[in-house]
Structure of dCMP deaminase family protein:
Amino acid sequence: MKRTDYINWDEYFMGIALLTAMRSKDPNSQVGACIVSPENKILSLGYNGMPIGCSDDEMPWEREGDPLDTKYMYVCHAELNAILNSAHNNLKGARVYVTLFPCNECTKAIIQSGIAEVVYYGDKYHDSDSSVAARFMFKKAGVKLTAYTPTGRRAELEL
Ligand SMILES: O=c1ccn([C@H]2C[C@H](O)[C@@H](COP(=O)(O)O)O2)c(=O)[nH]1
Ligand SMILES: [Zn+2]
């Protein structure tokens, strides 16, 4: 008889997004994105990090100060990285699992790529202008928003 306590698709893909986020060097917010086809095949992954050639050790990770000395000018967001990493895949009708609700800039990229659903875990910037604009665009574009409901299942990995 088959096992019955296997993880479901949502746990699997959000779990992979959470694991992917662990690659981020951002000291404050580690974000992961996992793009999945309608057939539940993983099309791409991404996390927030500095652009290729911009050393993680030489770029700023500060949140405040002179804008040119903060991470915000430079860091490439998880969703954008996942979309750019999927250059050879058609993302029409895909779902993206993200550990943090997308900002307005990632929202534009998600919409333009044809992704049809965003499943998000955290939403800590819900009331920011960026999140308000993101929700406005998703609604206009007909992209489905689904808040991930944690199941409480814990995954332990010995690495
Ligand atoms: O859509 C998004 C929004 C943000 N991120 C990344 C960009 C930054 O590295 C962090 C946010 O840092 P805070 O210190 O929480 O302001 O998250 C992203 O990947 N995708
Ligand atoms: Zn973003």
